[in-house]
Design brief:
The protein is an all-beta fold and 361 residues long. The protein folds into two domains: 20-144, YVTN repeat-like/Quinoprotein amine dehydrogenase (Methylamine Dehydrogenase, Chain H, 7 Propeller); 151-308, YVTN repeat-like/Quinoprotein amine dehydrogenase (Methylamine Dehydrogenase, Chain H, 7 Propeller). The chain is built from no helices and 30 strands. The chain has strands spanning 12-19, 23-28, 34-39, 44-48, 53-57, 64-69, 76-80, 85-88, 98-100, 108-113, 119-124, 129-133, 139-143, 150-155, 161-166, 170-175, 181-186, 191-192, 201-202, 206-209, 215-222, 233-240, 246-250, 262-265, 271-274, 282-287, 296-300, 303-308, 314-321, 342-349. The protein has a four-stranded antiparallel beta sheet, with no helix packed on it. It has a four-stranded antiparallel beta sheet with strand order 2-3-4-5, with no helix packed on it. A four-stranded antiparallel beta sheet has the order 6-7-8-9, with no helix packed on it. β22 (233-240) and β23 form a beta hairpin. The protein is globular.
Length: 361
């Protein structure tokens, strides 16, 4: 079967998986056969894409905050808001293979695995990057230096460098294996704390390398207007990896006012990212990174995660669906009834939609 020509301007929703609770994270498996997702129902859900058979894993005691597949073995790593990490065999099912009970003092916000599969890396609210052995969950290293919670992690395609991004807009670079601090990149424009704020807003919510490691995309938002629902200007900064200097600041087309929570580069060098917005349309955006204006933009509900299929032609978007409630969850007419928010796992095909077959001969 011929591989379709990549064309983001022709992207369309080719498949949807619906879930009745809000999911924060969802990823394709490295072999493209599965989708794993987790969120508010404390469960880990794994769909087999051929036929949509589903397994459910139940050991987390609170919301699932992050997850990542092992690049080679049949392992899925999931983390939660109490700092627990579980390792599962996502094909066989059953209970956790091993557990890290205190990977963080609070929320583990990001997980990533090195390309060789040896190390699981976590970051979260205690502002320390931690390295674990993927075979048994034993600690390998703790990388200190961040001053606030860590939102995002990325590894350079050559497997030599780790970057971590925090609430204050600091991006720190570390050596893989040596685990030594190498340098800091300045993305402080993505952090806001005005005199009338009671909390810091923003931070480096997403990180992505292009395939030759020449560019690093840093996503979030700038110029937050308040710390109530935290509206601001969605922003992506493009850094030259060799020099560590910012090259471009990317913008959006629409009215979204939340951060870029997830980004990835496509094989042709196009960058894609997704924003969030309260009770309205957000957008899936595509850029050629040397120009600030989007190449293409698609209206969509708020999303918290993206995942590119191994074929490079399918993009999984974890799309929030409002249950019709706001604030404390009460509805205007039936205040005793609480309808939780739900999720559509949308798969966007990044090529022209095939022509419909004509009836008859």
């Amino acid at each position: 079967m011929n591989t379709p020509v990549l064309d983001v301007k022709k992207a369309w929703v080719s498949r949807e998986l619906k879930h009745d609770r809000q999911l924060f994270r969802a990823q394709f498996s490295p072999d493209g056969r599965f989708i794993a997702a987790g969120g508010q129902d404390k469960l880990v859900h794994v769909w087999e894409l051929d036929g949509e058979k589903k397994k459910t894993f139940n050991s987390h005691k609170t919301w699932v905050s992050s997850l990542v597949f092992h690049p080679k073995a049949k392992r899925l790593f999931t983390a939660d808001y109490l700092g627990v990490i579980h390792c599962w065999n996502h094909e066989a099912g059953g209970g956790p293979q091993w557990t890290i009970p205190t990977a963080d003092q609070d929320n583990v916000r990001a997980l990533i695995v090195t390309p060789d599969g040896r190390f699981l890396i976590s970051g979260g609210d205690d502002a320390t990057v931690k390295v674990w052995n993927t075979d048994n969950g034993k600690p390998v290293a703790s990388l200190e230096g961040h001053k606030e919670c860590i939102f995002s992690l990325a590894i350079s395609p050559d497997g030599k460098h780790l970057v971590s991004g925090d609430l204050y807009g600091s991006v720190r670079q570390w050596g893989i294996g040596s685990w030594k601090f190498e340098r800091e990149l300045d993305a402080k424009i993505l952090h806001t704390r005005l005199d009338n704020f009671i909390a810091d807003v923003g931070g480096v919510r997403s990180l992505a390398f292009n395939k030759d490691s020449k560019l690093l995309a840093v996503g979030g938002m700038k110029e937050a207007k308040s710390n109530a629902f935290c509206p601001g200007k969605p922003t992506v900064l493009i850094f030259d990896w060799a020099t560590g200097k910012q090259k471009t600041e990317l913008r959006i087309k629409g009215k979204s006012d939340g951060p870029f929570n997830a980004m990835c580069f496509l094989e042709d060098g196009t960058l894609t990212g997704h924003t969030e917005i309260l009770h309205s349309d957000s957008e899936l955006t595509f850029w050629e990174t040397d120009a600030p204006e989007p190449l293409h933009s698609i209206k969509n509900g708020s999303a918290y995660d993206l995942s590119l299929h191994p074929d490079g032609r399918q993009l999984l978007v974890t799309t929030y669906v409002s249950g019709g409630s706001s604030g404390n969850g009460a509805r205007k007419r039936h205040r005793e009834q609480y309808t939780p928010n739900s999720t559509n796992l949308k798969i966007f095909s990044l090529f022209s939609k095939p022509a419909a077959k004509k009836a008859g001969c």
